[in-house]
Amino acid sequence: MKILVPVKRVPDPETTIRLLPDGSGIATDNVKWVINPFDEIALEEALRIKEKQGAGEVVLAAVGQKTWQEQLRTGLAMGADRAIMVVAEKPLDSLAIARVLAKVIADEKIDLVMMGKQAIDDDSNQVGQMLAEVLDWPQATFASKVEIAGTKCTVIREVDGGLETVAFPLPAVITADLRLNEPRYASLPGIMKARKKELKEIPVESLGVDLAPQMTIKVLKSPPKRQAGRKVGSVQELVQLLHNEAKLI
C-alpha cells in the first residue's frame, strides 16, 4: 500500500503570534516553525499501518515555499520513506492545494491519503474534503480509529453526537483527529537516515493545475481582549445581571 501524507508548515503552538501593521499576514521574524500537529498524527497513523502490514510506502507531500523542506525532513526522520516538495512561492487557497495534491496522487498512484483534519494556523478544515471531491474518493473526516483489512477501511469518526463508524473501499481520504494516536519522536538514527532519503522538488507550474484563487483573505485582525469577570453576591443578582445587562434571559 502506498500512503500519501500531506504536511503543512505552521507556527509552533507555543509561539506568540504578531500581526503585520497592515493586517496582511503575520510577522514571521523569530517564529519557530513546525509540522502541523494534526499532520503529525496522520503521519504516525500511516507509519503504523505500514508497520502492521509489513510492507508499503509512506510518502510525504507539501505545497509551499522551499523553506518547508525542514518540516519534510522532520517527517522523514519520523519514518516516512520519501518526500515531495511542490514549490509554490505564492500562497494558494484550499481548492488550489486540493487540485495540486490530486495531481500528485494520480502521478504517484496513491492508495490512501492520511492527513490532518485541519491546520492550526488558519483552521480552515477544507482541503481533505475538497481533495476527496476532486478525486471522487470516499472520505472519513475526524478519525479517532482506523482499521484496514485488504481493500476495506473502517473508521470511527468523532461527531457532535458521539462516535460514528463508517466503512468504505480504498482508495480513500482520511483526516486525523486529536485522539487517533500519539505521534512518535524522531530518533537519532532516524534523523541520520533522513539526510539520505529522497526529497523531490516539483515546480507547481509544471503540474498544469488551475491555481486561480476562489477565496482571498482581505485582512487579519487580533481577537478583542476579553473583559475581566466580576463576582456577584447571590443567584438573584446573577439572574438580574443576565437579564438587564447581558440580555441573555
Describe the overall structure.
The protein has 249 residues and is of the alpha/beta class. It has a single domain, classed as Rossmann fold (3-Layer(aba) Sandwich). The protein has six helices and eleven strands. It has a nine-stranded mixed sheet, sandwiched between helices. Strands 2-3 form a two-stranded antiparallel ribbon. α2 links the parallel β4 and β5. α2 packs across α5 and α3 packs across α4. It is globular, with a radius of gyration of 21 Å. The mean pLDDT is 92.
Keywords:
Rossmann fold; alpha/beta; 249 residues; nine-stranded mixed sheet; two-stranded antiparallel ribbon
The CATH class assignment is Alpha Beta
Give average pLDDT, whole number: 92
CATH superfamily: HUPs
Please give the CATH architecture: 3-Layer(aba) Sandwich
The low-confidence parts are none
CATH topology: Rossmann fold
Q: Please compute the radius of gyration using only Cα atoms.
A: 21 Å
Question: How are the strands of the largest sheet arranged?
Answer: 9-8-7-10-6-1-4-5-11
Main beta-sheet annotation: 9 strands, mixed
Overall strand count: 11
Describe the global form. Answer: globular
Count of alpha and pi helical runs: 6
Classification by helices and strands = alpha/beta
**String of helices and strands:** EEEHEHEHEHEEEEHEH
Helix content: 25-40%
CA(first)-CA(last) distance: 57 Å
Percent of residues in beta strands? Answer: 25-35%
Q: What is the domain tally?
A: 1
